Amino acid sequence: MEVRILSPAKNSMENALEKIKFKTKEEKPCQVVFSVQVPCEVVDKKENEVTEEIRKVAQLPGFRAGKAPTELVRKNYSDRVKSRTMDQILNEVVSGILKEKLLHPIVTPMINQLNFKEDRSLTFELIVERNPNFKVKNYTGIPVEKTVKKASPQDIEKELNLLRERSSQLAPSSAEKAEKKHYVVVDYVGSVQGVPVPDLKAENQLIHLENPHTVQGFAEGILGASRGEMREAPVQFPKEYPRKDLAGKTIVFQITLREIKEMSLPNLDDDLAKDVGFQSLEELKGKVEETIQKWLDHQSQSEMEKKILDQILKENPIPLPESLVSLQLESLVNQTLEKEKERGEDPPPAAEEIEKRKKSLRERLKPQAEESVRLAYLIQGIALQEKLQATEEEFNQETEKIVAANADKTEQVQKLVRENHSKILNQITEAKVVRFLMDRAKIKEVIACQR
Length: 451
Fold this sequence. Notes:
Structural class: alpha+beta
Number of strands: 12
Radius of gyration: 35 Å
CATH topology of the domain at 2-129: Alpha-Beta Plaits
C-alpha cells in the first residue's frame, strides 16, 4: 500500500514524537528510507483528540449538536475518525522526522508498507527524496576549439535564389501540354456509374500537378493534356476516405483543361531588391551576407558552449533524484509525441500501441533526461559556488526588455512574466553561468573550410 503525505501539520506533536521509534533503513545519495514505529499510546491519544473534534460538531438523533456521548460518536463516525487520525499522525510524525534530520525533500515524501497492527501500534516506511550533495569541479580553463565560419559566395547565392522563389508569381506557360511542374486551371465533375455527384464539381480550379493529392489518379489524368482538352480520369477513392458515400468507390472525373501556368522567377537585379525594401542589389547582397554571418557566428558560439558543458558533465557524474529524471523523461516523451502528431505521425489509436510507443521513447530518451537534470544541477551548483545567482534587479531589467519588445500586449506580457518568475530567474542564472564559463575557457579558433 502506498499513501501520499498531505501538507505538513501546523500543530506540534513534540511530546508524542519522543515515544516514536524510527531508524534509517537505507540511505542513498538522493534518497533516505526510514523505518518508523508509532506506539499504541500515541495512536490512542490522537484518536481521542480527533473523536473530540468530531463530537463538537456531530449531529446524532436525540442529541443536540456537540452533545452526543463520545462512544456513540466513535461508533457512528468510525471511518472518519480512523481516516483523520491516520492523516494527522502521518503528517505530524513525518514533519517531526524531517525537522530532526534536517531533511528538505524535493518531492512529497512517500509512505510505504503502512501497517495498523492488532495492538493498535502503527508501522510504516518513510521514503524521502533529496537533492544530491556535491561540489562542481574542473569547470574553469576548459580547452575548446571555436570553429570560425565565414559566409561563402555559395551561401549567399543559395539565399538569394530562395528569395527569388519566394518572390515568384504565376504566369501563363508557353508549354503546349501539361507537365508535372505546371499549375493548371481546370473544370471538373465527378460521377459514380454515370450519375454526377453534386459536390464533386468545380470550375476554374487551380491545381499544382507536382503536389501530393488526397486521391491518387486525379492529377495523373491531366498530365499531357492540351488547353481546351477534355479527359476522363477514373479515380479509386481509398477505403478510409472520410466520406462514407465515396470511400472505396471508383469516381470517374470529366476534366477540362483551361489554362497552363508556371512560376515565373524574377531577375536578380535592382528591381527585385527594391521590391523587398532595399535600394539596390548590392545593398540586398550585403544584408543577406550579414544575416548569414550572424547565424554562422551564433552556430559557432552554440557549438562551443555545448562542448564546454559536455566536458563539465563528463567531469561531474553526480547522482540524480529518480523522481526529477522521471518528470523530465515524461516531458520529453510528450514533446516527441506532439511533434509526431504535428508531422502527421500519430501514434496508433489503440491504447496498448500508444503505451508501447511511450515505452520505446522512454528507453531512448532516458539518457537525454538524465543529462538535462544533471546539467541543471551543475549550473545551479556553479552559480552558488561563484555567487552568480540572478537578482531581483536583473529580473526587473529582463522584464522591462520583454515588455518593451511586446508594447502592444503589455498587460498580458506582465501577467505571463509574473507567472514565470522562477523560470526567468533560472534562465538569467544559466546565461550568467555560461558567460562565466566562456570567459574562463581556453579557446582556440579554427578556420572552417569553405564549402
